[in-house]
Amino acid sequence: MSLLVVGLSHRSAPVSVLERAALSADARAKLVQDTVAAEPATEAAVLATCNRIELYADVDKFHAGVAELSTLLAQHSGVGLEELTPYLYVHYEDRAVHHLFSVACGLDSMVVGEGQILGQIKDSLARAQELHTAGKLLNDLFQQSLRVGKRAHSETGIDRAGQSLVTFGLEQLAAGGAVEEWAAGRRALVIGAGSMSSLAAATLARAGVGEIVVANRTFERAERLARILTEGDDTAVSARAVRMDAVPGELTRADVVVSCTGATGLVLTADSVAQAVEGRVVGGTADPVADAAARPAARTAPAAAGSGTAAAEENCPLDLAAVQGSTGFSVHGEAAVAGLDAATLEQHGAWVAGGTVDRRDTARRSPETDAELITALAATAATVGRIPELRRPEPVAVIPRPAPALFLLDLAMPRDIDAAAHRLAGVRLVDIESLAEASADAPMAADVDQVRRIVSDEVAAFGAAQRAAHITPTVVALRTMAADVVAGEIARLDGRLPDLDERQRGEIRQAVHRVVDKLLHAPTVRVKQLAAEPGGAGYADALRTLFDLDPETVAAVSRAGDSTDKKDRPA
After folding, report:
1. What does the pLDDT look like over 186-227, one tens digit per residue?
2. 46 has a pLDDT exceeding 90
3. Strand locations in 287-350, DSSP E?
């Protein structure tokens, strides 16, 4: 049997594909169960995070295994196999081990060096053990990957190469500023109470936010997280739990929102975010004056026909009160614009159309065109009820985007927050896709090379141990066969020499055992050394052939070893 991994991650697939291929907890369980039920595989485990989905299996056929695992991934993710295949990667045997060890060390993470992946690998192994789909190979592999990851973090400075996805996301929200300064005193809403949400809440608490509200579908879990935040020695902060139906109201009070749930649909739509910004409550109480000051200015439609209002709009070239007071022009009819030049009238026309005017074009205009323009603008003035102001409006493109009033961090896959929310004025949204783009430019620490060397050494050691373990049942079966031969010959000798006393019989037995042990010692030690080298698996077959060992005896030894491993393995 051989290790095979088939998967996709942020390195091989766009976030849109990862989002569609994301698996729920039930889907992951069904996937590993269906995998071990398939012909090529005997063990299976799924590693699913916000930026990767990988299926690990112990298979007896490479090509059949790749085809089966790819098909199962497509079936359970709901993404068609033809669409999914270009984004899949395949690792086999030592390359598969190397891949998982690299993942465990944070080398393959979106944020290099983040340590959160270790908890996700541990959870993946625990789920496979609960479902009884992890045998000796995957148990050994995943447990060793956890040890390798811990070694990399303890022996190198890989932690300095990056942070957790949560910290990286908060840094993106802070737009280059210190997270502690940006977060100080803000109100935070955390949606979800799982491992990622808990990490986000703890990180926000340490950063100095003033209050954290936790919302979760299971209210008891939200309460537990809020209590931990309030009572924790390093995360003491004002925290409270709310039910999910309270989220719209909490949005109007929050400054920072972090969402990471297992929902298959959107938790926050763009409309709900827009309503929260519109109904924003400043300082925890309704304050219309402060609210109006904090809310970004919006461009509205011109006044309704015949309204006669004198309220000016930003960038509007019409100022009824100013023009009427200084010129005495009528506000109705052609007389309102008859005395103005074509360029000024054209300026007003361009504003009405939502565009800008290049004054160089006026030289090419004919009197007839100007007359038509004046007539059209006269009708506009009569309808709108305002007089064109003698100034050119600023292009809309140069209007600066207002400073964010609401910061959103979406760490879910599939996404919890509608991506369209990033277009809303007063909102800054950071999600998995934007984090992937930002991480592409993140600098790599020098310690990464040292971690790569650790991974290479550990892969070689793991491979050697697995190959040596593979031949051990054969060696044990050989020694068992030799012991049976010795026992048979001693029994035959007892029949032929009945007059031997017990001391003599003991000496004979020891002499025969010593001969057999000396004859077998060198071959068995050497075959273990050879088997530990790459390509050494064939030595076990040669040993079985040379000594005519019963394959069932060897298999029985293997099963006995697996049973002992499971019994002795800590829960």
Report:
1. 999 999 998 888 989 999 999 999 999 999 999 999 999 999
2. yes
3. none
In degrees, rounded to 5, the angle at the alpha carbon of residue 66 between the alpha carbons of residues 61 and 67 is: 105
Catalytic residue from among 50, 105, 260, 316: 50
Q: What string of DSSP letters covers 28-72?
A: HHHHHHHHHHSTTEEEEEEEEETTEEEEEEEES-HHHHHHHHHHH
**CB atoms inside a 10 Å sphere around CB 290:** 14
Beta bridge mates, 268: 417
Whole-number CA gyration radius for the chain: 37
Distance CA 211, CA 184 (A): 10
Q: Alpha-carbon distance 357 to 347, whole Å?
A: 6
Q: What is the DSSP letter of 320?
A: H
pLDDT for 277-288, tens place per residue?
988 865 443 333
CA–CA separation, 366 and 372 (whole Å)? 10
* Active-site residue, 50 included: yes
Long-range contacts of 441-449 (CB under 8 A, 24+ apart): 442/111, 442/112, 442/162, 444/112, 444/161, 445/112, 445/113, 445/157, 445/158, 445/160, 445/161, 445/162, 446/157, 447/113, 447/156, 447/157, 447/158, 447/160, 447/161, 448/107, 448/112, 448/113, 448/158, 448/161
Q: What is the average pLDDT across 295-309?
A: 35
Between strands 427-430 and 406-410, the pairing is parallel
Name the amino acid, one letter, at 558: S
Instruction: Tell me the pTM.
Output: 0.60
Contact of 374 with 342, CB cutoff 8 Å: yes
With a CB cutoff of 8 Å and minimum separation 6, the contacts of 321 are: 310, 312
Q: Residue 335 in contact with residue 329, Cβ under 8 Å?
A: yes
